[in-house]
Amino acid sequence: EPARSVSRRTDMADRQVKQSNTVINAGLSRLEEDKQCEDDEFIGFATLPDQVHRKAVKRGFEFSFMVVGETGLGKSTLINSLFLTDLYKDRKFPNHILDNAEQTVDIERKQLEIEEKGVKVRLSVVDTPGFSEALNGEKSWQPIIDYVDRQFEQYYQAESGVNRKNIQDSRVHCCLYFISPYGHGLKPIDVFMMKKLHHKVNIIPLIAKSDTLTPKERSHLKNKVMEQIEENHINIYKFPECDSDEDEEFKQQDRELKSAIPFAVVGSNTVVEVAGKKVRGRMYQWGIVEVENPAHCDFVKLRQMLISTHMQDLKDITSDIHYENYRAEHLAEQMKQSTRERMKLKRESMLNPGKMEDTDNLIAQKDAEIQRMQEMLAKMQAQLQTNPRTPVNGT
Ligand code: GDP
């Protein structure tokens, strides 16, 4: 009897387990169906940011900037302080300096690749010859202008070519303009040079060797330079407005950044020890000026904006405004040439009435060409006008 009752109970338990299994399985398959339905409702574009991100990271970023200013203001030293440093332990330099891709007597371009958390940035740093008012003026600035134009030209050619997918972008995205700490603001050569550059490249003015100034002198010089920039209608890089929905900390950072222009910088090739820590600095009898100490100068602000906060905006402005300006000028030049050719054909047709038909055809071709260019120019002009950050043209 007890044995029978035990076996009955086991049978019941078995049945119960089977029943619950069926319930669970039914539940699971319903869940599966629901999930399928949910999946069907998603088109899948939610992964787009990831895809764009992955693609961009794979390709890497290209960024070029140049340093311009009088000889001896510390341009080369600052470049070294900015990137060619062994102090960034968590940053990889796979190819420390890739090559001197372009080196002429006057201009030297260094390329280096930095990688941080899997993101690669290919940086090109263009060191230009220092100029000086005492020296032959034109000779010293022309190569700098020519260099910027040449990069636009190369990009233009590549863009009009067949293989437009992997265009190397060597356009100069930013120009760090060094201002002497010894004078009383901008010198005539600075005003001249900035005006030559401001429609071609984003200018970021810097007060060089700012360790030679007291805080009061520094702030006085900064104000003076900004006044002169305005008086002379020089278009330096305009920092974009901060979005109103950004958090307060970000807004504060943005305000500090904007009010620090022109950035007062200090460069150094020497590593010194401060409180047991190795830092880049300049050692004086009275103490040490630390390059990366925000209380000592604006170096960190400059590096941060170049590399982490404003790189993309500098690239966008280069592409949308400076390069478009170049294209418009280039097109206008081509149009002038076509018009001249058309006039020449017209003269020829009058002198040789026998060849009339051929010449008429050619003139009609030229007319069509000129009209196409006019339309392109009008379109570009309209685009430039709708962009609120377009600088006013005219040198
Ligand atoms: P460049 O001709 O503009 O490239 O100037 P360099 O980088 O060759 O520097 C010229 C001299 O100025 C060198 O003796 C540097 O050590 C010195 N120098 C560079 N940066 C600074 C700086 O921030 N402060 C001071 N006091 N001297 C600097």
Unreliable stretches, pLDDT < 50, 5 or more residues?
86-105, 391-395
Q: Which overall shape is indicated by the principal axes computed on the Cα atoms?
A: flat
Q: Provide mean pLDDT, rounded.
A: 79
Based on DSSP secondary structure assignment, what is the total number of beta strands?
A: 10
- The end-to-end distance, rounded to whole angstroms, is 112 Å
Biggest β-sheet: strands ordered side by side in the sheet: 2-3-4-1-5-6-7
Order of helices and strands: HHEHEEEHEHEHHEEEEHHH
Quaternary form = single chain
Sheet with the most strands?
A: 7 strands, mixed
- Rg, rounded, reads 32 Å
Which kinds of small molecule does this entry bind, naming each only once?
Answer: guanosine-5'-diphosphate
Helix content: 40-55%
- Computed structural class: alpha/beta
Fraction of residues in β-strands: 5-15%
Task: Please describe what this structure looks like.
- By secondary structure, this protein is an alpha/beta fold.
- About 50% of the residues lie in helices and about 15% in strands.
- Strands 2-3-4-1-5-6-7 form a seven-stranded mixed beta sheet, sandwiched between helices. It has a three-stranded antiparallel beta sheet with strand order 8-9-10, with no helix packed on it.
- Strand 5, helix 5 and strand 6 (about 205) form a beta-alpha-beta unit.
- The site of guanosine-5'-diphosphate has 14 residues, from helix 3.
- Its main location: cytoplasm.
- This is Septin.
- It is found in: Cytoplasm.
- Belongs to the TRAFAC class TrmE-Era-EngA-EngB-Septin-like GTPase superfamily. Septin GTPase family.
- Keywords: Cell cycle, Cell division, Coiled coil, Cytoplasm, GTP-binding, Nucleotide-binding.
